[in-house]
Amino acid sequence: MKTLNAYVLAISLLFMQTAHAFPQHHPVPGGIAVIPLKSQTQPALYYQNNKVLTLLKNNQWVAIVGIPLSAKSGIHKLLDQQTAQVTTFEVSDKTYPAQYITLKKTPKNKRMINPNKMDMERINREKKTLSKALSTWSDTPPQVEFSLPTQGRLSSPFGLKRFFNNQPRKPHSGLDIAAPTGTPVTSPAAGTILDVGDYFFNGNTVLVDHGQGLISGYFHLNKTFVSIGDTVKQGQKIAEIGTTGRVTGAHLHWNIYLNQSKVDPAFFISDHIHKLSKNK
Q1: Which strand (E) or helix (H) includes residue 261?
Q2: How, if at all, do strands 251-258 and 214-224 pair?
Q3: pLDDT at 209 exceeding the cut of 70
Q4: How does 80-100 read in b/e, with b if 16+ C-beta sit within 10 Å?
Q5: What is the spatial distance between Cα 41 and Cα 43, in angstroms, rounded to a whole number?
C-alpha cells in the first residue's frame, strides 16, 4: 500500500499544473518523451526501428515517443528517414519496486503459474496474434487527451517487478483498476477496434487503435460489446470489468502501447489519476 500511495502522490504532483491531459514529457523506462521538432512539415521519425507518433501542438510539430521498460539511461536518438536528420533526447534511470502476489493453489491457478504443454502452445499462438495487432500503424491523427476508461480503485501501478507465488514474472505492464464485475469500461479516446479475443493470461481482451501506433488494451473483461473494425467514440462503452485470465480479483488491467512499447497509462490521464486514488 505504501508503494501505491507514493506512486499516486508522485503522479499527482507531476501533473498538478497541467491544464489539459496532454501526454507529459517524462523520459524514463516505461515513460514517454514529448519532443518539439524544428520540421515545417510532418516528419517520418523512427525510434528503435519503429515509427513514431507526431502531431501539431501550438503550431509546432512534436514527437511523442514511447520508451520501453528495457531502455537504458543515456542519450537516445530519433531518425527522420526523409531527411536523415537525427534528434536526440535523454532517458533517465528509474527503479520500480517489487510486488509479490499469491494465487490460491487451485488447478487453474497452478497452470497460470506453470502452464502445461498445451497451454504453452496456445500462449505462443496468442503472442503472435497480439504482436501482429500491436504492430499496426494507421496515419489517422490520434486523440491523445484521454479520459478514464473506468471508475474504481487504483490497485496496482505500472512497472512493478512481479512475483507470482514467489516466482519472478515480467514487470507489470499497465494500470490495474479494481472494481466489481460488471463495471463499465469505456474507450478513453476515439479509435477503431483492433482486436477482441479470449487469451490465456489476459482473459477477455479488447484492443483499440487510436492512430499512429497509439494503442490501448483492456484485459480480464467479463463481457465485450464491440467487434473488430468498429469505430468508437471517446467515452463509448466497450466492455465490462471481470475476472477472466490470470487474476486475484475483479479488475481492469489497462495497457497503453506507443511505437510498440508498453508505457505508463498514468501519463495520459493527468487530469484524472486523482479520481482513482480517492476511491476506496
Answers
A1: strand 261-263
A2: antiparallel
A3: yes
A4: beeeeeebebebeebebeebe
A5: 6
Strand order in the sheet with 161-164: 98-101, 161-164, 167-168
Q: Which three cell numbers stand for residue 74?
A: 543515456
The three-state DSSP-derived secondary structure of 48-77 is CCEECEEEEECCEEEEEEECCCCCCCEEEE
Dist. CA 61–CA 194, nearest whole Å = 27
Cell 467515452 belongs to residue:
235
What lies within 8 Å, CB to CB, of 263 at 6+ separation is: 30, 31, 32, 66, 67, 158, 256, 257
Within 10 A of 259 (CB to CB), how many other CB atoms are there? 25
Q: Which of 47, 43, 209 is nearest to 137 (CA)?
A: 209
Residue 209: which residues within 8 A CB-CB, separation 6 or more? 136, 138, 191, 192, 193, 194, 215
CA distance 260 to 276: 26
CB-based contacts of 110, cutoff 8 Å, min separation 6: none
Residue partners of 155: CB distance under 8 A and separation at least 6: 4, 176, 177, 178, 251
- Residue pLDDT, tens place only, 87-105: 999 999 998 877 666 666 6
Alpha-carbon gap, residue 173 to 144, rounded angstroms: 19
The enclosing H or E element of 132 equals helix 117-134
pTM of the predicted protein model:
0.86
pLDDT at 17: 40
